Amino acid sequence: MTASSVLTDEAVLKAYKVLAPVVTHTPLQYSAYLSQKYNCNVYLKREDIQAVRSFKIRGAYYAISQVPDDVRQRGVVCASAGNHAQGVAWTSAKMAIPATIFMPVTTPKQKIDQVKFFGGDKSKIELVGDTFDAANAAAVAFSEAHNQTFIAPFDDLNTMAGQGTLAVEVFNDAQEQSKSIDFLFAAIGGGG
User: Fold this and answer.
1) Fewest Cβ atoms closer than 10 Å to its Cβ: which of 54, 85, 117, 136?
2) How far is the C-alpha of 109 from the C-alpha of 100, rounded, in Å?
């Protein structure tokens, strides 16, 4: 966790400045089907067109970028069943730092292959346990034993600030396109 225990607007805006030249500024895309179905104007934030096809790249990159360079060079560690792992792998390749990524043995081969693809020779995958919790416990223990930084998939203010940058884009784009936002819906699941 970072020093503060509350995610602030300032933290998200700081993350936005760091990430703007790194991640894809994804569009708000009008959905004719959903708009007709619900008799309103529905726009979808297209995070599926990020390099790793998920907003998780934002949190992974920003959290890693906030680790001091000399510490970051020792390596980073994470636990994930997929999207956060891909973001960490992509970031490790981009920053040329080692990453050890713990995934449950039940992780689909497609997700494992994607992590390998994005991380190249900078990422090493460890398949441990049947659940995320088991992989997470192993990752935390590994990071402590090897003096490397654990990059949490959700329970970290830097990760949250990075992921929150998509909201900055939503509000900026809506304002630039003279669209008013009456409701904003965000899926909440496994903590991410």
Assistant:
1) 117
2) 17
Residue 19 is classified by DSSP as: H
CA gap 141, 164 in Å, rounded: 28
Contact 164, 103 (CB under 8 A): no
**What's the CA gap between 79 and 60, in Å, rounded?**
11
Structure tokens at 33: 């089907």
Domains delineated in the chain:
9-23+56-165 (3.40.50.1100)
Q: What are phi and psi of 122, to 5 degrees?
A: -90, -20
d(CA 1, CA 50): 26
Residue range 44-91, pLDDT digits in tens: 999 999 999 999 999 999 999 999 999 999 999 999 988 999 999 999
Question: How many of the other CB atoms lie within 10 Å of CB of 77?
Answer: 25
What pLDDT digit, counting tens, does each position of 78-131 carry?
999 889 999 999 999 999 999 999 999 999 999 999 999 999 999 999 999 999
Q: Is 22 exposed, middle or buried (0-12, 13-18, 19+ CB in 10 A)?
A: middle
- Helix, strand, coil abundance in the chain, percent, nearest 5: 50, 10, 40
